[in-house]
Amino acid sequence: MDEIEIPQYFICPISLQIMKDPVTAVTGITYDRESIEQWLKTAKDTICPVTKEVLPSSSCLTPNHTLRRLIQAWSTENASGGIDRVPTPKSPLCKSRLLKLIRELEVPGLYVNALKKLQVLAKDNSKFMEEAGVPKAMVLLLIRCCNQSKTIGVEQALRILYLTWTPSSEIKAAVNENHRIIDCLTWIQGCDIANPVVVKTLAMQVLKRVIEAANTRLLEKLKPEFMEEMLRVLKLKFSQQATKSALQILIQVCLWGRNRSKIVQANAMFELVELELEKPEKNITELIFNLLAHLCSCADGRAEFLSHAGSIAMVAKRILRVSPATDDQAVHILSLISKNAATKEVLSEMLRVGAVTKLCMVIQADCSTYLKQKAREVLRPHSNLWNNSPCIAVYLLTRYQ
């Protein structure tokens, strides 16, 4: 059997496949809808791939019904030759339908059904829904659920918000104008809710994005209860993703205002050391050490860190065992301790648990020049004490002098 020749104008210029849902851009070039929408979503500049002219937005794509019918007729005619019949595409989502569903969110008897429909639509229309204001509507709905202590619809609202979230100015404005969303997402962590692990993990992922979008003023006003709830998430360890999100959130917020002190006062040092002692995955360890380094830069943080009997030993043990990023933060932590809290007891503890030996090994290992110099800066000021100790081999000490 001769190979069936596909008419050139049936082929999408992007995917080079037969078009299933041909649409014509304002430049006059026809593409398959899925391919051109993906192009516009991911391309740095929204230009026509063929003519290189500017394309305003995906809403300027016009369905080419005539070409679609021709492709369908041709595919049916050649089905015996192995050509798959092109089905009739679904009607594209219109803004008026979205606005109707958003209005129904405010009606007690309709909002659950509206949420279900929006969740289905969000899987394939996230960009269009974001432009129509769906994320802001989800923020307001979640706040309303929190204010009324109702959990019905919370999971769907979180999923829709997560799927339609983009770091746009509109979403940033929605967060900063409705700062109660932070309290709401924190409230979800303590709720007795159906499907708790999934919902609470999703809430943590959304909260991470909210914190990234929040302005400085909002971050500086975070309550101590917020820090306590993040640490409770770490303690409960109900999912790997929730733990990761909680650590990322604490790292983000500790840079602003008095948040570092609030985190320390919430018993963060103890929880972080305990979490690391359970030997979590590498990416979690890196986040733990990042946060510990931030918190050890203040006196209260160092005091709380040293109050845990296993803190220095834990840091020493992780050096040269996890990753270069962990090595950097671990040496930085030991540097902060040795410079600002170098009591005889602390220095003796560093010797006893192998921290001094590990610093000497960093100097010998295939580490960056910067890290080796950092290790030397920790070792040199206390060399007299460590030189006389039987806890460390002489040949190691001679390497940093």
From TrEMBL:
<comment type="function">
    <text>Functions as an E3 ubiquitin ligase.</text>
</comment>
<dbReference type="InterPro" id="IPR003613">
    <property type="entry name" value="Ubox_domain"/>
</dbReference>
<dbReference type="InterPro" id="IPR045185">
    <property type="entry name" value="PUB22/23/24-like"/>
</dbReference>
<feature type="domain" description="U-box">
    <location>
        <begin position="5"/>
        <end position="81"/>
    </location>
</feature>
<dbReference type="InterPro" id="IPR058678">
    <property type="entry name" value="ARM_PUB"/>
</dbReference>
<keyword id="KW-0808">Transferase</keyword>
<dbReference type="InterPro" id="IPR013083">
    <property type="entry name" value="Znf_RING/FYVE/PHD"/>
</dbReference>
<keyword id="KW-0833">Ubl conjugation pathway</keyword>
<protein>
    <recommendedName>
        <fullName>U-box domain-containing protein</fullName>
        <ecNumber>2.3.2.27</ecNumber>
    </recommendedName>
</protein>
<dbReference type="GO" id="GO:0016567">
    <property type="term" value="P:protein ubiquitination"/>
</dbReference>
<comment type="pathway">
    <text>Protein modification; protein ubiquitination.</text>
</comment>
<dbReference type="InterPro" id="IPR011989">
    <property type="entry name" value="ARM-like"/>
</dbReference>
<dbReference type="Pfam" id="PF04564">
    <property type="entry name" value="U-box"/>
</dbReference>
<dbReference type="GO" id="GO:0061630">
    <property type="term" value="F:ubiquitin protein ligase activity"/>
</dbReference>
<dbReference type="InterPro" id="IPR045210">
    <property type="entry name" value="RING-Ubox_PUB"/>
</dbReference>
<dbReference type="InterPro" id="IPR016024">
    <property type="entry name" value="ARM-type_fold"/>
</dbReference>
<dbReference type="Pfam" id="PF25598">
    <property type="entry name" value="ARM_PUB"/>
</dbReference>
